[in-house]
Amino acid sequence: MSIVSVRDLTVQMGGRTILRDVNLDLRPREALAVIGPNGAGKSTLLKAIMGMVPHRGRVALDRRPLSELSPRQVGRIIALVPQPSEGRPPVTPLELAILSRYPWQGSFDGVGCQEMALIRSALEAVDLWELRDVPMGSLSGGEAQRALIAAALAQDTRCLVLDEPTASLDYRHQCEVLRLLLDLRSRGEDRGMIMATHDVNLALRWATRVVALREGRVVLDRSPEDLGPEELSSVFQVRFRRISDPQGGCIMPQELML
Ligand SMILES: Nc1ncnc2c1ncn2[C@@H]1O[C@H](COP(=O)(O)OP(=O)(O)OP(=O)(O)O)[C@@H](O)[C@H]1O
Predict the structure, then answer these.
(1) What's the gap in Å between 17 CA and the centre of ligand 1?
(2) In this structure, is residue 115 part of a structural domain?
(3) Same-domain status, 219 and 237
(4) Distance in Å, CA 91 to ligand 1 centroid
(5) Which residue's C-alpha comes closest to atom 29 of ligand 1?
(6) Which residues lie with the beta carbon below 6 Å from any ligand 1 atom?
(7) Rounded distance from Cα 42 to ligand 1 centre (Å)
(8) Which atom of ligand 1 is nearest to the CA of 44?
(9) Using CA positions, which residue lies closest to atom 2 of ligand 1?
């Protein structure tokens, strides 16, 4: 059963068609990477799935039409990890994780022992428990990214949506976030994850499926093993090459090679 089902999704904004007839399914245990050039519609697709932009077509979460779900119900199924560059809320990682419990709380509920245990395990999963009381504004980029992931984990949803989780991170922090995402993927829980990224090697390393958008359309939907330089060249309109090494390999635009 799909956690997220998108059928004939079309989004128009500012008099332009941003997404056209997009079809997509996310099943439990799938890690779906959405790649594509600037302006292809990746973030808009994530927003449409979260019910944050008006659209035509059908989006269903856990088989229930998005249009019939309240924001609180959506928040029980799907959690968004935004880019830290979109602004840091004036709270600590602990407070952010507590706030993320909102979809599950009644009007007069405080945070009980069970919820606190969940919040603690989310902060520990991203190795941020020690920094739980440091204001978000004082954290490094990697720490802030991990705090956003912890808040999404504390929300305890079946689906995580990540918008460019490694953008603006240095290499060490990119590796940290990749390790965390690989760990989440391999835990064998029934969670599904969708990540928009510019980093094709991150997509190939982490995803169980890769979808490419170009000018608002899905131009490719396949497993990472079936994606090579030729396919990426046609998506990004630059020539890609594969670099192989006994330790592994990667795919790079030829013009960026030394
Ligand atoms: N609110 C809006 N009104 C009008 N146009 C918009 C709006 N939001 C996004 N767009 C346009 O939609 C297109 C797709 O934007 P989107 O941010 O989804 O692309 P993206 O693939 O995530 O791009 P990038 O890789 O640069 O982040 C862009 O041309 C953008 O200018």
Answers:
(1) 10
(2) no
(3) no
(4) 28
(5) 39
(6) 13-14, 16, 18, 36, 38-44
(7) 8
(8) 18
(9) 13
CA-nearest residue for atom 17, ligand 1, is 43
Distance 212 CA to ligand 1 centre (A): 15
Say whether both 178 and 84 belong to one domain. Answer: yes
* pLDDT string in tens for the chain (258-residue length): 899 999 999 999 999 999 999 999 999 999 999 999 999 999 999 999 999 999 999 999 999 999 999 999 999 999 999 877 777 888 999 999 999 998 887 666 677 788 889 999 999 988 899 999 999 999 988 888 889 999 999 999 999 999 998 887 788 888 888 988 998 888 878 899 999 999 999 999 999 999 999 999 999 999 999 999 999 999 999 999 999 989 889 999 999 998
**Same domain for 189 and 244?**
no
ipTM of this complex prediction, to 2 decimal places: 0.97
For tokens 């941003």, the residue is: 18
Asked if residue 127 belongs to a domain, the reply is no
Q: How far is the CA of 186 from the centre of ligand 1 (A)?
A: 32
